[in-house]
Structures are given as C-alpha cells and as structure tokens.
C-alpha cells in the first residue's frame, strides 16, 4: 500500500490530541488532522480506529536480545528474543545489552541480532560493554564503537553495587563515561552510560561521586533497576531531582517482590508523589535477562526470565491501579526513553516521525494492533509478521 489512513483515532502522542486522522506513507507519519481527505488514484488502506486509543510504539531501553548468562550454570542461560516477543508487548524499538556473561555472550552476536531484528521489522540498537571493567568492546575502544558502529548508542550495563560486578571505582567510572560522552558528541548520538544498580548498600554512591569530583554531568548516567528496593528508590528520586534520568525495571517475579522490590507502576507513583520529574523517569523490560534471587550469602535461590510484555503490563497497572494519568504513564515507555537514547523520530506521534504506533482498547488498554515503520506487525490482535524461524 502506498498510504495507510487511520481515521477517528483518540490520539495520545503521548500528550492527548483528541480524535484525529493519521496518514502514513513510506514508514513515516505524513499528516495528523481532524479530517484528512485524499484526492489520489494511488492505493490507500483505510482503518477506522473509533473506540480505540492510538499511541506511540514502546521504546525498550534495555533488552537482552541474545539472552543472558545464567547465574545457575550453563543450563540456566536464558534464550534470545524473537520478533513476536516484542510484538506481543507493543515494543517497536529495542536496545540490546550484554549483562553478567561477556564470555559466551559476545558483542559480535549482539550486533548480528540487532541487524536481524532490523531486517524483520523492528528498530534496534545496542550498548557496547557489559557489567565489567575493564570494558570489553568490538573495536578496542568505547569511543570507536559508538562513533563507527551505527547501531551502537552507548555503553552498558556497567555494574555498580553488585557482587557480580568489578567493584568499579568512581575514577574508573568517570573515565568510561568520558569516553562514551565524547563518542556520543562526535557522532551525534546519546553516548549514554547505562548503569546496572545491584542490591549493594552503596546504591548510587559511585554516580554521585563522579558528579561531585568531575565535570561530567549527572545526566550522562542512566541507572536502571532503581525500583529494586525502597532504599534505592529513595536515592533514585534524589538522583532524578539532581537532573538525572532513572529507569524502573518492569519485569519481576513474586519472589523478588517479596524480597523488597517495589513494583514498577507503584514506584512511579511514589516517585511522582515525592516530587520527581516525570520527564526523567523510564520503564524498561530487562527482557530475556535472568531474574535471579540470591540469599544473604549471595547464593542463587531461584531464577526466572524477564518478559517483554512487562512494559504494557506496568503501563496498564499505572493507569488502572495507581490512578496515574495515561499521558504521564505513556511517557515512561515512549517519549522519555526515546529522548534518553537520542532517537528523535521515536516515542512520539508527530509529522515526520517514524510510523511506530499501537492501537489500544480505550477501556482495558489491551493491544489491538502494532505498527512498526509503517508496517503492520499485529492487526486485530493477530500477529501478522513473525521472525524468520518462528
């Protein structure tokens, strides 16, 4: 089809724009208006979205697209994601990362998966590095990876406050951040440092030390898992108020919640009630990561896998249970992560933006249809495009 015209859409861009028509052509949004009329002999696919909400496709800033290294041995290594995992969760942009294991999970494998997901219809990016320091890269340099590899937009997950990390010092972390910052500046990319924050009691101390002792701005760091505990959430709110962006992990388990993790949607409510800036809060899935539960001796108790449907689940809970405005909740999974990752054509519905969008039931917020780059991946709750080997 040359054109796709969606009529009578209750549009959240993510700000509410009321009932609008949306015209899509060549993978981009060509027009948004109350009533679009076309005088053309070119083929047009028309869809009536009456009774549905239309919002941007979700931007997932942390997905272990090649799977994660299992903390329970080789048999516990988690599986890689498939295209349908993202579609079911309304995710149209993924950002891949390595985690604990950078021996059997490689950057070469990560880049190949990114490129394959792009061929299958998603927008996909990745972080160089992993939990550990010295940093492993593809080219031998964080700066080179960011500048020379199109899909590389930063470094992560580099671990702090975690027994599985390298116990990185603030000076070492500042050096890594400087390399990422310069690489981003020289290539007009985010150059962001995604920071895995573990359960250690020093929480965000390393990030505050870098901000105190250097000229590197606090917003250079993007700490995730901030809802891991009430104490970490308090520090995360402080970090947010100091100008930083914080990320809440949507994937969880009953065991992890019972150990003190704050449910993602509820963490958002607490942060907003504490005066945090809603424009500097994001959700990510941690999809396909291992979700381990450790005892007080650091021994593995249980392990499950992060789900890519978690963003959608927590968005619904934020609105329907926590009574957060839909516009505010939507920002955490659309516009806010797109801004952090410096992806100006993602996370919003506007003229010229990529045609990544979701049709949601106006009452239950269940996903009806998914479009990525102007192509339908799900239509009327039926997946119409699957991965190559699904």
Short description:
This protein is α/β, with parallel strands linked by helices. The protein has eleven helices and 19 strands.
Q: What do these coordinates show?
A:
The chain is of the alpha/beta class and 390 residues long. It has 2 domains: 3-55 and 346-383, Urease, subunit C, domain 1 (Roll); 58-340, TIM Barrel (Alpha-Beta Barrel). Helix content is 27%, strand content 28%. The protein is built from 11 helices and 19 strands. The protein has helices at residues 83-88, 107-120, 142-148, 170-187, 205-213, 230-241, 254-258, 264-273, 310-320, 326-331, 335-340, and strands spanning 3-12, 16-25, 28-33, 44-48, 52-56, 58-63, 91-96, 123-128, 152-160, 192-197, 221-224, 246-249, 281-284, 290-294, 300-305, 357-361, 367-372, 375-379, 382-383. The strands form 4 sheets. Strands 1, 2, 3, 4, 5, 16, 17, 18 and 19 form a 9-stranded mixed sheet that branches. It has a 6-stranded parallel sheet with strand order 6-7-8-9-10-11. The protein has a two-stranded parallel sheet with strand order 12-13. Helix 3 packs parallel to helix 4. The chain is globular. The model has no long low-confidence stretch (mean pLDDT 94). This is Isoaspartyl dipeptidase. It comes from Reinekea marina. It is found in: Cytoplasm. Keywords: Hydrolase, Metal-binding, Metalloprotease, Protease, Zinc. It is an enzyme of class 3 (hydrolase).
């Amino acid at each position: 089809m040359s054109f796709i015209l969606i009529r009578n859409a209750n549009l959240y861009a993510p700000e509410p724009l009321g009932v609008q028509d949306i015209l899509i052509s060549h993978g981009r949004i060509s027009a948004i208006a109350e009533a679009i009329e076309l005088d053309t002999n070119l083929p047009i696919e028309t869809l009536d979205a009456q009774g549905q909400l239309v919002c941007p496709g979700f931007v997932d800033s942390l997905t272990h697209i090649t799977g994660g290294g299992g903390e329970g041995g080789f048999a516990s290594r988690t599986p890689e994601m498939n295209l349908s995992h993202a579609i079911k969760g309304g995710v149209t942009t993924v950002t891949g990362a390595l985690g604990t294991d950078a021996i059997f999970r490689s950057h070469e494998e990560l880049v190949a998966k990114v490129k394959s997901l792009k061929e299958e219809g998603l927008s996909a990016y990745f972080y160089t590095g992993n939990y550990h320091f010295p940093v492993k890269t593809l080219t031998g340099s964080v700066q080179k990876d960011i500048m020379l590899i199109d899909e590389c937009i930063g470094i992560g997950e580099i671990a702090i406050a975690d027994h599985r990390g390298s116990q990185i010092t603030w000076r070492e972390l500042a050096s890594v951040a400087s390399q990422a910052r310069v690489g981003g500046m020289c290539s007009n990319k985010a150059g962001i440092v995604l920071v895995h924050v573990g359960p250690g009691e020093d929480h965000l101390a390393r990030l505050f030390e870098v901000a105190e002792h250097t000229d590197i701005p606090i917003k250079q760091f993007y700490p995730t898992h901030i809802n891991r505990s009430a104490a970490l959430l308090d520090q995360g709110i402080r970090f947010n108020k100091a100008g930083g962006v914080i990320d809440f992990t949507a994937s969880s388990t009953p065991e992890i919640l019972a150990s003190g993790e704050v449910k993602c949607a509820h963490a958002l409510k607490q942060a907003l009630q504490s005066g945090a800036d809603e424009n500097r809060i994001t959700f990510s899935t941690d999809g396909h990561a291992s979700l381990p539960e450790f005892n007080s001796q650091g021994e593995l108790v249980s392990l499950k896998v992060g789900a890519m449907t978690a963003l959608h689940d927590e968005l619904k809970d934020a609105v329907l249970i926590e009574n957060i405005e839909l516009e505010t909740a939507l920002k955490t999974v659309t516009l806010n992560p797109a801004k952090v990752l410096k992806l100006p054509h993602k996370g919003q519905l506007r003229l010229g933006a990529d045609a990544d969008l979701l049709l949601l039931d106006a009452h239950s917020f269940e996903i009806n249809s998914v479009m990525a780059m102007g192509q339908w991946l799900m239509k009327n709750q039926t997946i119409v495009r699957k991965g190559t080997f699904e």
